[in-house]
Amino acid sequence: MKRSIAARAVSKARKEFGKWSLSGGAVRRKIYYRLVSEAFGREESAVDAGITAYHRTLGSGREIYTLRRNVHMLEKGLTMRPRRAEFALGYIGTTVGAFANVHEAPYPPLGVEESRWMHAVLTEYFEATSASENPKIVRLRADFARLTPLRATAVSIASGPHPPQAMPSPISIEDLQTLATNRRSVRWFTEEKVDRDLVDAAMLIAAESPTACNRQPYRFLVFDDPESVARVAEIPMGTAGYGEQLTGMIVIVGDLSAFFDERDRHLIYIDSCLAAMGLVYGLESQGVASCCINWPDLPDRDRAMAQLLGLAAHERVVMLIAYGYADPSGLVPYSAKRPLEAVREFRTLS
Predict the structure, then answer these.
(1) d(Cα 257, Cα 52) in Å, to the nearest integer?
(2) CA–CA distance from 223 to each of 75, 283, 294 (Å)?
(3) pTM (two decimals)
(4) Cβ(320)–Cβ(250) below 8 Å
(5) Which of 67, 87, 116, 186 is most buried as measured by Cβ atoms within 10 A of its Cβ?
(6) 122 near 94, Cβ under 8 Å?
(7) What confidence tens digit (pLDDT) does each residue in 50-96 have?
(8) Could you please report the per-residue DSSP string of 207-242?
């Protein structure tokens, strides 16, 4: 009982101090966020854990984020006009070393298409720099040539730099506008389960979304059995009143171990949400409704979800998406959008 009374007193004092701090100036707020609030401290811890995890992959045969970033930068260099005879001297050694480690690992963490892309880009890099007599490039060219050639595997498009797709878009702007306009956040679903093939088809759309340096710092955890969906749905705020009848739930998790510097800490949110919109439209185009669920940055809910899903210290929940077949007897909010003039502004700098 004494502990309960003390805990309530501490909680009340924290709230009062918070009101005093947040209603004041910058100094008060800095004191509050340093001494009372956990919000930024938890983010700092996650970012630090991500950077630590990133560096632990180096030389391990699992440096996939290093490879994705570096090979992407090489590929950009190959597309520059005019193409330089020498470039990427600051990171080509790291790239070849990482590729060798991953390529020779017993269980390579890369898919065939990703491996083929990296091999194709490195091959073209050494062809583009063939006239260079720089000792580093000469040595690394020989190192790369000694790697076991990858099996030829058909992929959807050229594996390295290639001209833009010349074919016209099969989707008109009017069709896309109709899809976007008709899509609404649905919270009431039938009991019919969505086939996993439909979810995977939408995931392939999401996976084509751009990410910074092609690092793809996220994963989508999909739940479609009633017990799991219910357990996940009860953690975030905003599901009260309808969470108990959801039939499918996706948790988007950002991976801060994709980055070696805190400057990139926001990219898990940017890149994940770009992918999320592709996923939502992919579901909608197949007749599957969805509802984006905000994830609150609250310590108790962070801990509960991390424990439930077994998340690493460098992983953070970005958002959730409920999905299923819309109940025709349910209602959806209209949610009027701001006019074009309110969100778009053409400008000229002079």
Answers:
(1) 7
(2) 36, 15, 17
(3) 0.88
(4) yes
(5) 67
(6) no
(7) 999 999 999 998 999 999 999 999 999 999 999 999 999 999 999 99
(8) HTS--GGG---EEEEEE-SHHHHHHHHTSSTT-TTT
